[in-house]
Design a protein that fits this description.
Length: 185
């Protein structure tokens, strides 16, 4: 009986050991190198301060590039028209754009509070009743609806002004808007 138990234990041990090694593959250097060829290469783009971008695939290979993050502290290049250049492809981050947008909102509020643009009040008239059987013209209007509205903008030449920025022409001479004289041709 002891021999049967011993034989049964030995067979069970052999089966258990073989099942552990059944999924194991003996590898060679060429096998490992071939498996490495299937892995993605390291991303070559990416300099400190830049962001890596994925540009799709070409010939089965992933294509990457990089874009700088906008830094307002760096110098701008100006072309002949005095337009800033040199940062056209940069990515803008929230820490730069949020204060810029807040500044824009403040400018809009100034316009709404009438601190930048001059204002004037105009009266619009709309005819609500005409002479019966007559054409709907101003001459045949019996009842007008008058509505005041505030208009923001600049004053035309000849209008009263307090400062040059009030005037469309940019000049306030003696309390009246004027435009600069054009050169004679």
């Amino acid at each position: 009986m002891i021999k049967k138990s011993f034989l049964l234990g030995a067979i069970a041990s052999i089966i258990a050991i073989n099942s552990v090694f059944a999924d194991t593959i003996v590898t060679s250097k060429s096998y490992v190198d071939n498996r490495d060829a299937l892995k993605q290469d390291k991303i070559t783009a990416g300099t400190t301060g830049n962001v890596v971008t994925y540009n799709g695939t070409q010939n089965g290979q992933a294509q990457f590039s990089e874009r700088a993050i906008f830094d307002p502290q760096t110098n701008f290049d100006f072309n002949n028209n005095e337009v800033a250049s040199g940062h056209e492809g940069d990515l803008v981050t929230a820490d730069f754009i949020v204060p810029a947008m807040n500044g824009l909102y403040q400018q809009i509020e100034q316009v709404q509070n009438e601190t930048i643009l001059p204002r004037t009040t105009t009266t619009n008239k709309v005819c609500t009743e005409w002479v019966s059987g007559q054409s709907h013209t101003d001459a045949n209007c019996l009842l007008w609806n008058l509505t005041d509205q505030t208009v923001y903008g600049c004053f035309a030449d000849g209008a009263g002004c307090g400062k040059a920025s009030d005037c469309c022409g940019g000049m306030c001479n003696g309390g009246f808007c004027a435009s600069p004289a054009l050169p004679q041709t």
